[in-house]
Amino acid sequence: MTTVAAYAAPAAKAPLERTTIERRPVGEFDVLIDIKFAGICHSDIHQAREGWGEAIFPMVPGHEIAGIVSEVGPGVTKFAVGDRVGVGCMVDSCRTCENCLAGLEQYCLGGNVGTYNAVGKDGEPTYGGYSQKVVVDENFVVRVPDGLSLDVAAPLLCAGITTYSPLRHWNAGPGKKVAVLGMGGLGHMGVKIAHALGAEVTVLSQSLRKKDEGLKLGADHYYATSDEQTFQDLKGSFDLILSTVSAPLDLDAYLALLKTDGAFVNVGAPEEPVRLNLFSVIGGRKTLAGSGIGGIRETQEMLDFCAEHGFGAEIELIRADQINEAYERVLASDVRFRFVIDTATI
Question: How far is residue 113's CA from residue 24's CA, in Å, rounded to a whole number?
């Protein structure tokens, strides 16, 4: 076992504090990673505050991990010491169900093992990236391309893949009109990726506060959802709306913005149930859908895509002792656009 420093929430809604955790010995197919950077995702806050239900404490959040391989098990073939790597939202799955075999480990029928707030196959709780090191099976580690610096690559392991996967699945590309709802950590990556895929991109945000930045990142149009006129002007406009918002929405109003056969895809996960009038999907043969992260193969594809197009996340680098302040700023939408922890400061 290796003892490493980490930041953990000792109990639900408690401030995170510096502590130590034990990492398992490096097994035959394991990779030991010296974590360099860890992104802060809104889902870290949901889980640390038990917004999505009962959680495991103490909790070390963090599933946007970028670092350097420092040791490999004797059976490891995919990585070597010194490699630049990443770990996202899961660290294991059953590997035998039809979804796992199809490269959809995120939808493992037995449930994948989360990078934190989960129980591994060894029966021990998993601890995430707000720490100095992590041990992960090589099959759940991805390579960070040389064209991406580790700090801007870290948020791609959740925010990047969570937007890339549905954009690819619903065929965002040339000739398609895509709206990204919300201009935060996920939304800004949705804009960059949809633009790079060749779609015509519109941002739907509460206000026009981030309009200049949205246009700079690749949006063609930018509208405020607080303006009722927006919903009149954009009726029947979009092939795909990607919602990154984790607050309850008036789904009927947004479904009206879709073309016939359009899809409204949720990647933001509100803590409360939402209401829906089914006539909003029946009229126009519309789809209301959700999407999780991507599988390991698709996550690697996404990293390579971002490197090829020359972009990572837009980040604000912070020290570990600023995590609690960063949580409050995320909730206040006061971040451009993703906080990343410099883990050397833990």
Answer: 16
Q: Which amino acid is at 152?
A: V
Q: How many CA atoms lie within 13 A of 185 on its CB side?
A: 34
- CA–CA separation, 157 vs 210, rounded Å? 24
Quick: pLDDT tens for 308-322. Answer: 999 999 999 999 999
DSSP element (H, E) containing 99 = helix 98-101
Q: Output the six-digit token pair for 225.
A: 């959802």
pTM score > 0.90 for this model? yes
Structure tokens at 278: 């089914």
Task: Give every CB contact of residue 274 below 8 A, 6+ residues apart in sequence.
Answer: 248, 249, 251
Return the closest-CA partner of residue 341 out of 55, 178, 321, 115.
321
CA distance linking residue 68 with residue 36, whole number of Å: 7
Q: What is the mean pLDDT of the chain?
A: 97
Q: Pick from 18, 10, 12: which is nearest to 319 by CA?
A: 18
176 token code pair: 């398609």
Count CB neighbours of 310 within 10 A.
9
Q: Is 7 exposed, middle or buried (0-12, 13-18, 19+ CB in 10 A)?
A: buried
Element housing 326 (H / E)? helix 323-331
The confidence band for 54, taking pLDDT boundaries of 50, 70 and 90, is very high
Asked if 154 and 39 touch (Cβ cutoff 8 Å), the reply is: yes
In terms of Cβ atoms closer than 10 Å to its own Cβ (0-12, 13-18, 19+), residue 201 is buried
